[in-house]
Amino acid sequence: MMMRPALALLVTLIAATGCVTAPEPKTAFNADEAAFVHAEGRNTITGQAFLRRNDGVVVYAAGSDVHLIPKTAYSTERMDGIYRGAKINTYIQSPPMPDGYLAAMRDTRADGEGRFAFAGVADGSYYIVTTVEWLVGYTPQGGNLMEEVSVKGGETRDIIMTGR
């Protein structure tokens, strides 16, 4: 009978590990600081996002939304909380987005091979975020990928997003 409380505690602890939420940034979101994302520029950012499964099969971000997020004090603190120094997040949930945050980014969709492009990008530093997921049984695998990129002077940057 002593096993029941221990088993209940174990189940609770296992369930709780899947519910980790990143802390809300202490820095307030400032739409004016992020407005450069919508300015017309001469730069282009292209890339491809994928993950390699343990069995060696490559899974692309096919059909996934890809977000171009301006690097600001708020977005930097948010990315630090979500990714914690890594380029992949497999279990930490994002904190709620403040009003105006979604409007302060550009979006596109990856093609069947996980390729994406943003044209007319203004000079500046950005985060690029997307998702690569697949199912094993009914369990989702993969995660969210993030890369940091800076552009200026009409350059084209090609990035590969693999979580490394």
UniProtKB/TrEMBL annotation:
Keywords attached to this entry: Signal
Annotated signal peptide: 1-22
Natural source organism: Martelella endophytica
Name this polypeptide is given: Lipoprotein
Organism placement in taxonomy: Bacteria, Pseudomonadati, Pseudomonadota, Alphaproteobacteria, Hyphomicrobiales
